[in-house]
Amino acid sequence: MHRFARRSLLAAALLPAVMLVSGCGKPESSAPAATPKLRVGFAQIGAESDWRKANSDSIKREAEKRGIELVFSDAQQKQENQNKALRNFIAQKVDVIAFSPVVETGWEPVLKEIKAAGIPVVLTDRAVDVSDDSLFVTFIGADFVEEGRQAALWLAEATGGKATIVELQGTPGSAPAIDRKKGFEEVLATKPDMKIIKSQSGEFTRAKGREVMETFLKSPEGASITALYAHNDDMAIGAIEAIKEAGRTPGKDIVIVSIDAVKAAFEAMVAGDLNCTVECNPLLGPQLFDAVEAIAAKKPVERRIVTPAKVYTQKTAAEDVKTRVY
Ligand code: GZL
Known about the structure:
Low-confidence stretches: 1-26
Bound molecules: beta-D-galactofuranose
CATH class of the largest domain: Alpha Beta
Strand content: 15-25%
Distance between the termini: 40 Å
Structural class: alpha/beta
Shape: elongated
CATH superfamily of the largest domain: Response regulator
Number of strands: 12
Order of helices and strands: HEHEHEHEEHEHEHEHEHEHEEH
Helix content: 40-55%
Number of helices: 11
Number of domains: 2
CATH topology of the largest domain: Rossmann fold
């Protein structure tokens, strides 16, 4: 039986006893019994990008604002650390567990242990690939396939449908890397003169994005590159440094489209180095704790909560950059 059910049954059972003990037929202090603080365990992926840092800030800030006790762990982008943290939350008997799974697979065992412990699970940001739908209550996050489509549609428009593209993928096996590639290639299938000639993971980080872009530029096909598709802004910003070092002009010789729409991307667009970014909102704290509080109150929760996206380009970057909050 779920912890909340047990707790409310217990409270209901005890109340008459409490009233009997006091002998007066009504509780001594008229103040209502303080409802216990909700305790939520959150297993975060890491701090690999500006997006991730904004996501963590939003979750911590919102928990604080709502008086929810947050047990927060950072897995440094390692699945084994996330699994450890999730098992820890079971031992700590938290009320709800939430996490952003670093990759899609390998979660069934720990999710079954959490289910057996009667603790509800909320997924934020990234999805898991499991056969048993009862292993989590809801998934709150963007439609990564659509983000990939939007990036490709913008690039097709910007290049007249003709581009020799290199791709910096996100973390191998992660939902955003799989789906952003899928959406981009769906559009490319209709564009015969747009070709991805090289594609490799930059792990969603600036450092790795720069390193991989350097190898692309030094390869025999380096001189033929006319466009870069990066699965996040951090890798695009790292790649911009490599492009400049190679004596090429980012934003002109090599047109660049990425995803996230973090503030540094707007600064790069104002500088003319980046051409377009597709927004993937990291501020999931409010939606996460709306779902947590609904679960605690035994109210229904949507199975899938999609966060909207928007395409931003150099055209409006000088204005947009002033109001970006992450
Ligand atoms: C997307 C998120 C990705 C971001 C990256 O929802 O999972 O992980 O695009 C982040 O910046 O590292």
